[in-house]
Amino acid sequence: MCNSPLSYSLIFSLSLSPRLGRRGVLVVGVGAVGGVGVALHFVRRLVVFLALRCVQAVLVQGIYVTGWTLAGELFPPRWRCRALIAFGMTRPLGVALGAGLGLSVQHWRGITLAAAVPLLVSLSYCWTIPESLRWLLTRGKTKRAREIAQHISARNHRPLPPTFHAHLDHLAAHEYLRVPWGSICTLFCTPRLRRHTIVVLYLW
Predict the structure, then answer these.
(1) pTM to 2 decimals?
(2) Rounded to an integer, what distance in angstroms lies between the CA atom of residue 19 and that of residue 153?
(3) How many other CB atoms sit within 10 Å of the CB of residue 93?
(4) What is 1-129's CATH number, 1.20.1250.20, 3.90.1150.10, 3.60.40.10, 3.40.50.2300?
(5) Domain(s) of CATH 1.20.1250.20: residues in the chain
(6) Cα angle vertex 40, ends 34, 41, to 5°?
(7) What is the pLDDT, as a whole number, of residue 149?
(8) Cα dist. 184→7, 8, 144, 193, 203 in Å?
(9) How many Cα atoms within 13 Å fall on the side-chain side of residue 44?
């Protein structure tokens, strides 16, 4: 229900994520999905239940796409494919764990609550997720991007290349500041994008 890629692409990828940051949208989405899951546990009316499930479906897809974007932007090109494959494996793993959860809990109200509580708990360590360096550079936040890169380098015990800071300044000054703001119209600005958008919407 409401599992349309167009829905979450318009709301998250093109509207909120470029403006609020990948991590900000991810954290808000996780909190919202967890909150809606807790609310579903206490719902008594079918219409309200269906409406909340529709909202939850859109938010879940937005979390997935935003997390995918963040993972792709944090890793260098030679590691990006592996990182995204590993990220993609989390979804079927979650579905498998959900099946085990359903066998253990049985009642659907307990399942919704058991699935929502870990999401709310994860908000306590959301500060450990680094913001996308690319997003920071497109917004002119070079200093913050440099701090995050140094922190990642220190945690992985890998020194940054000598030319890293100069390269970062070059990207911020000559490349990423030219990136336009995304909007809903981006999906329809060229014939090819319009065709792909319609095809993807139809397939889902």
Answers:
(1) 0.73
(2) 26
(3) 10
(4) 1.20.1250.20
(5) 1-129
(6) 100
(7) 87
(8) 10, 11, 28, 12, 20
(9) 0
Token readout for 201 is 């919407």
pLDDT in tens, 8-67: 555 555 667 777 788 888 888 889 999 999 999 999 899 999 999 888 887 887 788 888
User: Tokens standing for 44?
Assistant: 């008594």
Q: What is the 3-state secondary structure (H, E, C) of the chain?
A: CCCCHHHHHHHHHHHHHHHHCHHHHHHHHHHHHHHHHHHHHHCCCHHHHHHHHHHHHHHHHHHHHHHHHHHHHHCCHHHHHHHHHHHHHHHHHHHHHHHHHHHHHCCHHHHHHHHHHHHHHHHHHHHHCCCCHHHHHHCCCHHHHHHHHHHHHHHCCCCCCCCHHHHHHHHHHHHHHHCCCCCHHHHHCCHHHHHHHHHHHHHC
Structure tokens at 80: 């990006």
How far apart, in whole angstroms, are the C-alpha atoms of residue 9 and residue 66? 9
Higher pLDDT, 98 or 15: 98
